[in-house]
Every structure is written in C-alpha cells, then in structure tokens.
Amino acid sequence: MSHLAYAAAAEFDRLLGDPRDTGRLFSHARSLALDEREEFPLEICRELDLLGLPAHYVPVAHGGALRNFGDTLQIVRTIARRDLTVAIAHGKTFLGAASVWVGGDPRQARELGAEVARGTAVSWGLTEREHGSDLLAGDVSAERTAGGYRVSGEKWLINNATRGDLVCVLARTAPEGGSRGFSVLLIDKRRLDPTSFRTLPAARLHGIRGADISGVAFSDAAVDHSALIGAEGDGLEIVLKSLQLTRTLCAGLSLGAADQALDMATAYALARHNHGKPLIELPQSRRLLARSYADLLTAEALTLFASRALHALPGELSITSAVTKYLVPTLVDQALARLSRLVGTRSLLRGDTFEHGRFQKVLRDHRIVGIFDGSSVINLNSLINQFPLIARAHRRGPADEAGLRTASTFTEALPDLDPAALELLPRRSSGLLHAVPAAARELRSLADAGAVPHSLAAHAAEFAEVLEEVTERIGRHKPTPVAAPAHAFKLAEDYARCFAAAAALQLWLRNRSAVDAEATHGLWESGLWLECCLVTLVGRLRPVRTEHLVAEGGRDPEEAVDRLVEPLVAQHTSGQLPSLLPYSRLGTPA
Amino acid sequence: MTTSAPESTAQVVSSEEIRDMLLNLVASYLEQPVTDIRSDVKLLDYGLDSIFALTLCGDVEDEYGIEVKSTLAWDYPTIDAITGFLHEALSERV
C-alpha cells in the first residue's frame, strides 16, 4: 500500500520486481557486479525504456506522461533506491531535454518528446574543462552560417556525452560573450558529419563508476538552424530556468540514497547484537538512527513541497530549487555519515558479506549529487544573489497565499507545469516564511486543546523567533557584486534551513487530517515528525551544547528525536520503507 | 500582473533623473564615488556579473513602481541603454 503521492513510483517499482531476487534484471546483485566492472548499466536502462520511464521526462503538453513533477521525481527516487548509477545514467535525459521544455517552440518540443519516448538518450553539454560551472566563460562557439551554425570546441565531464544521440549544448554565439552572448543548440550527433566531432573517453570515477561521464569535441560541426532553441542570445536564460527544474529533480536521487542506507542500517541494528543486546537497544545506536531518520524526513518534506511548488509557485522556483539542491544532498550526506558509524566496518565491505556491498556503493555514489548540476556552493551563492529580492519580497508581504496552500496540500489539484511562468528571480513572496508566525499560533491552540504536545508548540515558537533574526540579517545584508563574502554563505545556509522548517510546518498542518495515522505508525499524529524536523533544524540554526545543558539539569533537546526509532522499527517490521508517507517494500506482504 | 509595489503617481521623469538614479545605484553597489561611474560603460566591465545585474530590476521597480523584466540589464547593458528603455516605458505610462 502506498500513499497517492507515491502511487506512480510504487507501480514502477512493482514492474521492476524485488531487487533482492537475483533472477530479476534490475537486481542488487547485478548492480554491484556492474559497478565492480565499471560497466554502463545498458540492459537495465533498456528495461526502463521498455517500461515507459522516458515518457515521464516529457510533459503531457509535448506528448509525454509528465503531468505531476512529483510523480517523476518519486519514480527517480525509486530507481535511485536500487542503484544511483542507473538513476543518474537514465535520468540525464530529463536534464538534456529540459531546455527544450523551457525554451523550445511547440514543434521542437513535440519532436523531442517523441524521440525521448522512443528511448533516445539526451545529454546536456554545459561544463568545459577549463571553466567548470562558470557558464559565461564557455569557449564552445557556434558561428552563424548560411544554413545554421558551425560549432567548435569541447564539452567535458558530461553525463552521457558519448551514449547520447542528442546533446543540448550551450554555445557562444557572440564572440564577446556576455549574458546575451550564448545560445542553446540541440545537436543531433547522428546527423553530423562524423569527421566533425569526436567523443572523449569516459572519466574513471570514485562513485557511479558505470556512468558515462565523458565529453564531446566539435570541430566545425555544421548544424541546421532548426537546432537553435529559443532565440539567439537566450541561452543563459534558458539554462538558468532549466536548472530550476533539474535541481529540484536531483532531490529524488538523494532521497533514494538515504532510503536504502537507512533501510540497511535499521535491519542491521535489529539483527546485530553487541554485549548481549541488539544494537537497536543501545542509546547511541538509537540516536544515530533517529537523527538520520529526522534528516531523511526533513529532506522528504522539503522535496514534497518543492515538487508541488514547481507547479503552484513557479515564479519562486529560483529560490525553492536552490534551497532544495543545497539542503537535500547536504542532509543526506549527513545521514549517510551517521549511518556508516552505526554499521561500522561493514559499511566499507565490498562483495557478498553485507548487502552485496551496497552500503559502500551508496556512500560513494551519493558523493556526486551535492556537486553536479550546480554544487552546494553554487546554490548558496545563488541564494546570496537573491537576498535583496528576498528581503524586498518579504517587506512587501505575502502575495500568493492560494499558491502556498496548493503547494502544501496533497489533496489539492495542481495546475499544469508552465515553463513560461518561471522567473530568474523571485518577483513576489509566496508567504511561506510569512506564514510561520500564524502556523506557530495554530500549533499553540492545538497544544492547548491537547492535540499536540506543548513541546511541539514551543519548538515552533522558537523557530518563529529564529526566523525573524534570519530575515532581519538578510535585510541588512549589503549586496556585493563580485565575490560574496564567506559569512554570507552561512546566512544562506540558515535561510535554507528556515525554508525547510517553514515547509514542514505547512505540510503537517495542511495534511494531518488527511494522512492515515495508523499506516504511518505514529509519525503524523501529535506532530512527531514535524517536531523532530524543527528540533534538528533549529538545533543547527541556534546551536546549544547539549552536555552543558544536561549538566545544568536541563533536558537533552534531542530526546524528542529519539522517539523516531519506534515508528522506524514499526515501519521496517511491517514491510514499509522509512518514509513520511506509507510505501511498501517489495517482496514483503503489505 | 498586480503587485503591491508603491504606486508612484504617473508623471514625466526626465532621462537625466533616471540616469542619475542609476548612476547612484551602481555606485552604491560598487562602493565607489558616483563620479567614477560612466553611463556608457557596460555594467559587466565594472565587475557587476550577469546574475548580480538581475537584482537591478528590483531597485528599478521600487523606484518607479513599474514591473520590468528581470533580464533588464542583460538586454540593456549600459546605464545609458537602461535609461533609454526606462524613459520610454515611463513616458508611455503617462
């Protein structure tokens, strides 16, 4: 049984079959064997094509199956839960195609939609050897000719640059460059003169070893004018807007990584005995599991909000996507580090001794998620650049309360994805942060009525205070046009944590009566998961030294978080994955 | 699109006023004396990078109460160019 929000993903999972069954094509055993051989998961990707995954990368408007971005994201999470290499190798096609959904004309979008649905891999050529993420420094050039463009130069460390028949390339169309000096070209390698390009060997990797992270070098490659996406000079704008979609999608990769690691660690803590006791009964093991689960729940709540906000509040996606791409991989990295302390030596074992070596693989594989498609530093820098607009929107007050309600409420119908509504900067405030004081008051009334513990209301009130400080600091921030100062990065991290806490507040308040309390094993009733998210987020925003607090007779604030072990174990033993919403593990009776 | 931006009463704003406002704005971003800023030099050449240039639109909107595209400074890369665009937009409003 799965919650409606995860129904499409669960159906996909079912079609792929139990990954522990070595007879299945997409089994853990095969994934690990491929990784050992650094081999591309070709057959698994073909199976995903046959099962119709590519259609989920194509908006319904262009003939595909993508109606609700959250469905696609949760399917990607399901694949990542089995094998990040596969999710990254296959999901790359969405990244490659996104520029066409954002900037292409209807004919281009429909043609690409048909290609993608047929299983054609699309790659996205942004970075170059010498320039990394500095897109405006790119040297790949497209010179105008009578029939189109002549493309020269090299794109490097590009996912599927070799395997992808289509490559969406950001190229310099004005020699002097600048914000309007670049354009997006969708290049069909099958139609190029074979002597006018060559692919570069795949890099050898620490994680996702089987992935095709390679490059492509063009030398006077002639492409037709119809390859141009949008107008000449629109390249940077199209790419920045596309990144808002792809950065949101990346959260699915991180969640899938956390899902599998927490599931393995929980099984281990239940089965393993130390000093005559199962690990799960030792306070430090419980703390490690509970903190990891709190991080996963925070990441999951933020992702659920962000994927709905992509439809309901598209004009603010420059903020939402940067917060998500920074915070979700960061939280999951943190959880993975904690869980590997719990699992100990086994977290490093290759081979069949422990979970086919999946734990060491997920540790390695996830390292890249916080780096590609805009690293944490890039996303924090993007938030810093938006501080003046954030402050201004905050002063103006909430403008789209209906959009906020839609983004937060699972049962509300979402408007269709509208790439034309994306903005490079937030033009107004959705009121997510404005809504915090009222949410804290709502929790106070619920506590007075006995529906939630007073501790939850107190944590919400404390968060409202912290938020006021953070907003005030953002208002005082003096924008610096060149290189943002190091302290501003801390402020951006704080802002991201506030955003996540505010999203968690809305999600719990707007869905608490609709979510099946029994099926979620106590996570929702009395606001347990929300309290744990608030405790851990506020703990980072306003750190206290627990040992000092306890020595002075106070309570350990993380004790609240330890309560997560109970629902974690209950979910595990009833055949569910650790999650905010019910999701059954395959191969176990529901 | 509606915003709650301060409604400035529609009146003719001269090019000189707009140019002065922008010169002061850019000087304050760069923390340089306004006399060091030239209106015919590309903002990019002053080290105002492409993303930072986007934030200019917020200040322009606050000042004149009109909504402009966030890519204003990309399409009009110098103070003179932005001045020309804004002067026309503000005159049309009157």
From TrEMBL, chain A:
Cofactor: FAD
Domain Acyl-CoA oxidase/dehydrogenase middle: 125-220
Classification via Pfam families: Acyl-CoA_dh_1, Acyl-CoA_dh_M, Acyl-CoA_dh_N
A single cellular component GO annotation: plasma membrane
Keyword field: FAD, Flavoprotein, Oxidoreductase
Residue span(s) of domain Acyl-CoA dehydrogenase/oxidase N-terminal: 33-119
SUPFAM superfamilies noted in UniProt: Acyl-CoA dehydrogenase C-terminal domain-like, Acyl-CoA dehydrogenase NM domain-like
TM region positions: none
Xref: InterPro entries: Acyl-CoA_Oxase/DH_mid-dom, Acyl-CoA_Oxase/DH_mid-dom_sf, AcylCo_DH-like_C, AcylCo_DH/oxidase_C, AcylCoA_DH/ox_N, AcylCoA_DH/ox_N_sf, AcylCoA_DH/oxidase_NM_dom_sf
Entry keyword NADP: no
CDD domains, per the entry: ACAD (cd00567)
Coiled coil, from the record: none
Domain Acyl-CoA dehydrogenase/oxidase C-terminal: 233-383
Molecular function GO terms recorded: acyl-CoA dehydrogenase activity; flavin adenine dinucleotide binding
Entry's family note: Belongs to the acyl-CoA dehydrogenase family.
Protein name in UniProt: Alkylation response protein AidB-like acyl-CoA dehydrogenase
Classification of source organism: Bacteria, Bacillati, Actinomycetota, Actinomycetes, Kitasatosporales
Automatic annotation (TrEMBL), chain B:
Keywords: Phosphopantetheine, Phosphoprotein
Coiled coil spans: none
Gene3D superfamilies: ACP-like (1.10.1200.10)
Molecular function, one GO term: phosphopantetheine binding
SUPFAM superfamilies per the UniProt record, alphabetical: ACP-like
Example of a GO biological process term: antibiotic biosynthetic process
PROSITE patterns (alphabetical): CARRIER
Domain Carrier: start-end pairs: 13-90
Database matches in Pfam families: PP-binding
Protein name: Acyl carrier protein
Species in which this protein is naturally found: Streptomyces olivoverticillatus
